[in-house]
Amino acid sequence: MEKGLVVRGLRVAVESVEILKGIDLTVESGRAHALMGPNGSGKSTLSFALTGHPKYTVTAGTATLDGVDLLALPPHERARAGLFLSFQYPASIPGVSVANFLRGARSALRPGEALPPAKFKRLVTDKMELLGMEPSMLTRYVNDGFSGGEKKRLEMLQMAVFEPKYAILDETDSGLDVDALKAVGESVNALRADRAETGLLVITHYPRILQYLRPDRVHVMMDGRIVKEGGADLADRIEREGYDPIREEVAGGVA
Fold first, then answer.
1. CATH code of the domain covering residue 32
2. Rounded CA gap, 26 and 45, in Å?
3. How sure is the predictor about 1, in pLDDT bands with cuts at 50, 70 and 90?
4. Digit-coded pLDDT (tens) for 25-68
5. How far apart are CA 225 and CA 235, in angstroms?
6. Is 44 part of a structural domain of the chain?
7. What residues contact residue 168 under an 8 Å CB cut-off, 6+ apart?
8. How many domains does the chain divide into?
9. φ, ψ for residue 63 (rounded to 5)?
10. How does pLDDT run across 130-147, given as a tens digit for each residue?
11. Looking at residue 94, what is its pLDDT?
12. Which value, in Å, is the radius of gyration of the alpha carbons in the chain?
């Protein structure tokens, strides 16, 4: 059985237009990978295809999670298998409290788990303390009236409570000011320290969040393909130079 979130030769189309053109990527347990690239390169398409959004049609390739065929599963079974997606634009759910949402979602992910209310409350309280979050958030409606930073931190709380094997963070830094970005970056680092075995795929356009969350591996996507890979220094280079030098290397056939 091949361990990790493993993608091989993945091709994905939206309304018959091919967006991903053969993606090969492996996210190992306990390691953080950054997927970078300019807008429109296909990064979010990869996240939605892996988690089972019906708009995205897989036309070729494979995707497995610790040997489990993700593409054969409906979205909720992919989540139960251990895959988590932090949305770029989290939806609001007026009328549903954060506490009820977390409990309902955790129960749906682990239908055989017998977690009494008191133990669940202790679990959530511990995770909120870990993330430095106020308990009052539990009584608010999910993302209703939340700031951008609050929405993203609630995504981190969900990841903490659900305890996935692998998490995709889709442009978690989108729309955040400097203070909120730092808070989210520190939250992710706290979660990594608390649950070291979780593998992360951090999708980002700008390398700002990577100042706080240093990746083990960086992958650059352009036009539906991964065109360059390297260590954290690759993100530093993009911060200094932008994507144009990499475009020129790709056009000139430089790996």
1. 3.40.50.300
2. 17
3. low
4. 999 999 999 999 998 999 999 999 999 999 999 999 999 999 99
5. 17
6. yes
7. 47, 50, 51, 83, 84, 85, 86, 201, 203
8. 1
9. -150, 120
10. 998 999 999 999 999 999
11. 95
12. 18
15: CB partners within 8 A, 6+ apart = none
User: What secondary structure letter does DSSP report for 205?
Assistant: S
Rounded to whole angstroms, the Cα distance separating 23 from 36 reads: 14
Question: Which three-class secondary structure state does DSSP give residue 134?
Answer: coil
Which amino acid type is present at position 47? S
Please give the residue range of the domain that contains residue 214. Answer: 5-85+162-251
Tell me if 111 is assigned to some domain. Answer: no
Report the interhelical angle of 148-162 vs 117-131 (nearest 10°): 130
Distance CA(21)–CA(59), nearest Å, equals: 10
Q: Which residues pair with 142 in a beta bridge?
A: 93
The conformation of residue 90, written as its DSSP 8-state character, comes to: P
pLDDT tens profile 93-107:
999 999 999 999 999
* Mean model confidence pLDDT for the chain: 92
**What is this structure's pTM?**
0.92
Tokens 């430089």, residue located: 254
Q: Which two tokens stand for residue 111?
A: 């239908």
Contacts of 27 (CB under 8 A, 6+ apart): 4, 5, 6, 33, 166, 199, 200, 201
Per-residue pLDDT reduced to its tens digit, 216-238: 999 999 999 999 999 999 999 99
